[in-house]
Specification:
Helix content is 8%, strand content 58%. By secondary structure, it is mostly beta strands. The relative contact order is 0.09.
């Protein structure tokens, strides 16, 4: 069951990665303890497995000496810690982190190593917060939720700073406060 889940997740993430492209960057040293196996298809890709003793701690593909495609990092007990897509050594596409309970903890999107798009935090399979990023900065809506699923905060950001209407709620979903921010400061009316 676990293998089927991982294979399904890997397939999904690869499809979100947008394929591959040629690297114009120079080689980078492989991690210590890396086992390299070149694919026989002539793509230039190599399968890299990094171990600590007998335990695999990460694995993925290298192209021209850089991470390229999907990389999986493992905790010491063998559970997946993260699945991240790379292009030319930079985070590019979907990145997931996992809790000690093997549940998705965060889901992020990257474009050339910079957060871009939706960033979701989970707490035991429930959404804890949803934020939007542009150019690596919080931009647009940010929503936080109580454990019961009710909204806790609904605010807007511009270049990482509160800007616009911000609403704060109690754990029953009733509005407690509403402020209007301009450049991170409460706007006086």
């Amino acid at each position: 069951m676990r293998v089927l889940f991982i294979l399904s997740l890997a397939s999904f993430l690869w499809s979100c990665n947008g394929g591959s492209s040629e690297s114009s960057m120079g080689p980078v040293d492989l991690p210590a303890g890396a086992i390299v196996q070149e694919y026989s298809d002539g793509s230039g890709l190599s399968k890299v497995t990094v171990k600590s003793g007998e335990t695999t701690i990460s694995e993925g593909d290298y192209l021209d000496g850089r991470k390229h495609g999907q990389w999986v990092e493992y905790k010491g007990d063998g559970l997946i810690m993260s699945i991240t897509n790379y292009r030319n050594g930079l985070k590019h596409g979907v990145a997931l982190t996992f809790s000690d309970r093997a549940e998705v903890a965060t889901k992020a999107s990257y474009y050339t190593d910079v957060l871009e798009g939706e960033f979701i935090e989970y707490n035991r399979r429930k959404i804890k917060s949803i934020s939007n990023y542009s150019g690596g900065k919080l931009n647009g809506s940010k929503k936080s939720f109580y454990e019961n699923g009710k909204i806790q905060e609904d605010s807007n950001y511009k270049d990482g700073i509160l800007d616009g209407v911000a609403k704060y709620y109690n754990n029953q979903g009733d509005l407690l406060f509403e402020y209007v921010y301009e450049d991170g400061k409460i706007k006086e009316e």
